[in-house]
Write a sequence for this structure.
């Protein structure tokens, strides 16, 4: 099973987007040729390819879950 953190598309050049992971990491350039994406969308990335666009609500719920996981790890 693969787990992915939502990232926000910061810029697009051709089939490549710069995806910002905010507090969970840095920016990463990913291939967006598999999906229709716009600047400001949240995406899930697997193997360097954006594979799914998330709604803002879905992305925030997922990010909140990752924050709770991180807090639990730091507390143990």
């Amino acid at each position: 099973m693969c787990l992915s953190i939502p990232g926000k598309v910061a810029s697009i050049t051709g089939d490549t987007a710069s995806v910002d992971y905010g507090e969970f990491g840095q920016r990463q350039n990913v291939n967006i040729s598999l999906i229709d994406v716009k600047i400001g969308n949240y995406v899930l990335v697997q193997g360097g390819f954006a594979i799914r666009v998330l709604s803002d609500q879905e992305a925030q719920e997922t990010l909140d879950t990752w924050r709770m996981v991180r807090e639990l790890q730091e507390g143990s």
